[in-house]
Specification:
Elements: E1 4-7, E2 10-13, H1 24-28, E3 31-39, E4 42-43, H2 46-59, H3 68-81, E5 87-94, E6 111-118, H4 124-129, E7 131-135, H5 156-167, E8 172-176, E9 182-185, E10 189-194, E11 197-200, H6 211-222, E12 226-229, H7 234-238, E13 242-247, E14 251-258, E15 261-262, H8 270-283, E16 288-289
Parallel strand pairs: 7-8, 7-14, 11-12
Antiparallel strand pairs: 1-2, 1-6, 3-4, 3-5, 4-16, 5-6, 8-9, 10-11, 10-13, 13-14, 14-15
Helix pairs in contact: 6-8
Bound molecules: 3-[O-phosphonopyridoxyl]--amino-benzoic acid (PXG).
Length: 292
């Protein structure tokens, strides 16, 4: 079956899903996006993803050409057209076609793209054994220049850090904020377990406010685990009892080594395992249905 891509109100074949070389999304990274998961025929936290997309758009003064309800509907329809059961959905709104100057007023019509693909799951080994990380030398964007809370098409900051990870032969890397405190990873939020507490950098540490991060905080509260949102230095990661990352693609993945230092017992900890189980149960128990 042909993959069908939603492009400006129509479902078109993959090979026909093309944008202009004058689209400011391409020329300047001027646009916003979301990465969303479907589990068992249901889209996980779709409303929250669309709300974050709308906030990102608003922050860059981009008015989506569809309402909240229309964006929800278009996403579900794209999943249905592609027979998605378990999948990864990419929603993109670009500034649209303009001229070669920066001026966004030259782009009268934003473009909406929705891609519903089958998911490349992380190997189960990552969850059983845990990941090694590095601390990247590339600092996370300052909110004073480009707020990390905006999920914009300009991901060069994260890509530069990702290149460091690739060079170090690790999957992910920790990015420090301009302050030197831990912010997040290139495409995941970070948590540490210290004693009885689960600690994660707060939104004002300069992070993307992850949908998975929020769901995991809810899981922790349901498990009776105390959650603290506060800044911490990299040494707090080195000396933590446990560490894990959260993201739409990763779900909740244990971290066992950072910059060559063993974290905790060097294997996924009990709190991490409990939360992973609860999170997986949650993804299988809620969501916007794709089919009737
Ligand atoms: N921080 C950053 C910088 C992200 O890009 C997250 C945290 C986690 O947020 P959610 O809402 O997914 O829990 C993200 C999102 C990829 C990929 O291919 C990952 C993201 C975005 C784009 C691509 O791994 N992560």
């Amino acid at each position: 079956m042909d993959q069908l891509i939603y492009l400006d109100g129509e479902l078109v074949k993959r090979e026909d899903a093309k944008v202009s070389v004058f689209d400011h999304g391409l020329l300047y990274g001027d646009g916003v996006f979301e990465g969303i998961r479907a589990y068992h025929g249901r889209v996980f936290r779709l409303d929250e993803h669309i709300a974050r997309l709308e906030r990102s758009a608003r922050a860059i003064m981009l008015t989506p050409p569809l309402s909240h309800e229309e964006l929800v509907l278009a996403t579900v329809e794209t999943c249905r057209a592609n027979n998605i059961e378990d999948g990864y959905i990419r929603l993109v709104i670009t500034r649209g076609v303009g001229d070669l100057g920066l001026d966004p007023r030259k782009c009268p019509k934003p473009s909406v793209i929705i891609i519903a693909a089958s998911i490349q799951l992380y190997p189960e080994e990552f969850y059983e054994v845990g990941l090694p990380l590095i601390t990247c030398s590339t600092r996370r964007n300052s909110a004073a220049s480009l707020d990390p809370g905006i999920k914009s098409l300009n991901y060069l900051n994260n890509i530069l850090a990702k290149i460091e990870c690739i060079e170090a032969d690790v999957q992910e890397g920790i990015m420090l904020a301009q302050s030197g405190m831990v912010s997040e990873c290139t495409g995941d939020n970070i948590f540490i377990v210290a004693g009885e507490k689960l600690i994660t950098p707060p939104v004002d540490a300069g992070i993307l406010e992850g949908i998975t991060r929020k769901a995991v905080i809810e899981c922790a509260e349901a498990e009776g685990i105390m959650v603290v949102e506060r800044m911490f230095p990299i040494t707090a990661v080195y000396t933590a009892d446990e560490c894990f990352l959260t993201g739409t693609a990763a779900e909740l993945v244990p971290v066992v080594k950072v910059d060559g230092r063993i974290i905790g017992q060097g294997k996924p900890g009990d709190t991490t395992k409990r939360l992973l189980k609860r999170f997986r149960d949650l993804t299988r128990s809620e969501g916007t249905p794709i089919r009737e």
